[in-house]
Structures are given as structure tokens and as C-alpha cells.
Amino acid sequence: MSHKFLCNASLHAAQFALDQELAQSCRQSGCWFCGGRLHVSNYPRKPRGVPPPFREGYAQRLSFTCAECRCRCTPPSVRFFGRLRFVAVAAILIAALTRGPSERRCRQLERCFGVRLSVSTWQRWRRWWRERFVSTRFWMQSRGQFADPAGLGRLPAGLLGAFSGRLVERLLLTLRFLSPLTGGPLRAV
Ligand SMILES: [Zn+2]
User: Fold this and answer.
1) pLDDT in tens, the chain (189 residues)
2) Ligand 1 mean position to 15 CA, how many Å?
3) How far is the CA of 186 from the centre of ligand 1 (A)?
4) 140 C-alpha to ligand 1 centroid (Å)
5) Residues 167, 86, 169: CA angle, nearest 5 degrees
6) 58, 115, 126, 171: which one has the fewest Cβ atoms less than 10 Å from its Cβ?
7) 156: preceding bond cis by omega (within 30 degrees)
8) Dihedral pair phi/psi, residue 81, rounded to 5°
9) Separation of 67 CA from ligand 1 center, angstroms?
10) How many angstroms is it from 90 CA to the middle of ligand 1?
11) 38 C-alpha to center of ligand 1: Å?
């Protein structure tokens, strides 16, 4: 993993296009609560973990509010993973690192992503993937698409390994696969 990898413009453009698709499909289905018409109501995000030239593409989370009941409907996203300070691509890459957290590796990540991650936060992420993710409704419903879900090994690294293509392609497929966790009925982050 390198800073250079995150400077791949097509990686960021593809994520933005995927988020627009997810948002469009959410808007077409109408309000989750009353079926009403949805109005664009994006909210600002402070992107972390992407090089400065690409931050603008992460400045807004696409979202809607219902014209009738005023409820907010935020579609799934491949760019943001819950309330994490890191954008999803950086959060997944860090969580997929096979070597565990240490002060030295946290300093390396700080140089790579330009944001400080503490050893304890990193450990918490690892615990989340190990203990919480595997019991989410999302994983219960979707693990069947892998021939041997138990054989994937440590997650999310196992997901990256299960998809084919170059790393950029596998990363996009992983983000797309995980996106229901970030918005809608299966949201868990
Ligand atoms: Zn509504």
C-alpha cells in the first residue's frame, strides 16, 4: 500500500460514479418511511485519508430528505464508512493490513494517509471486523455469495482476496459489496 496508490484518479472517479448510482436508485425508490418524493439534501464531510487533490470529491455525502414526512434517507456509499474520520477506501485498506497495530506502523500510516490513527483505534477496528461484522444482518444475508465464507480468513483482507482483478478493481468490488452496511435497512456502521 502506498500514497501513490491513493493518487490513482480513476479509483476516486469510480467511487464517485458508484455513489451516484447508489443515490439515484435510492431516490427512485422514494422515501423509506412513507414512499414520498425525495429531495437532494447532501451533507458536508471532512474527508481524511485521501491526498489533497482528491479531497473535494469527498466533501459531500449524498443524501435526501422526504418532501412529505421530512425524514432523512441516506443511501449506501462506497466513499464513506460510517462516522469514521477516514474515507472508506483508506479505512478498508488499513483494516485489511495483516500486520497488527503498533506505534511504528501508526506513524507509517500517518505519513501515508496524512491523519493520525492511534493504536487503540486500530485495535478497535480489528475487533469490529472480527466480532461485530460477522454477526451483522448484512453478512448473514450476503456471505452465501462466497463459495466458502468461513475460508475467507481474516476480514476484510479475505474479501479483497476473494474478488479478482488488479488491486484497484478488487478494492472497488469490496467497497461495493460492503456498501449496504453504510446506509439503508442493513446499515451497521
Ligand atoms: Zn417520507
Assistant:
1) 555 778 889 999 999 999 999 999 999 999 999 999 999 999 999 888 888 889 999 999 999 999 999 999 999 999 999 888 889 999 999 999 988 899 999 999 888 888 889 999 999 999 999 999 999 999 999 999 999 999 999 999 999 999 999 999 999 999 999 999 999 999 999
2) 28
3) 19
4) 28
5) 15
6) 115
7) yes
8) -120, 90
9) 7
10) 34
11) 8
Domain borders along the chain are: 5-182
Decide if 61 contacts 80 (C-beta within 8 A). Answer: yes
Q: State the DSSP H helix or E strand holding residue 186, giving kind and residue range, or none if neither.
A: none
| Amino acid type, 177 | F
Long-range contacts of 95-99 (CB under 8 A, 24+ apart): 95/125, 95/126, 95/129, 95/156, 95/157, 96/156, 96/157, 96/160, 97/1, 97/157, 98/154, 98/157
What is the 66 CA–ligand 1 centroid distance (Å)? 5
Is the four-CA dihedral 84, 90, 91, 94 of positive or negative sign? Answer: negative
Report helix, strand and coil shares of the chain as percent, to nearest 5: 55, 10, 35
CB-based burial label for 77 (10 Å; 0-12, 13-18, 19+): buried
CA of 76 to the centre of ligand 1 (A): 18
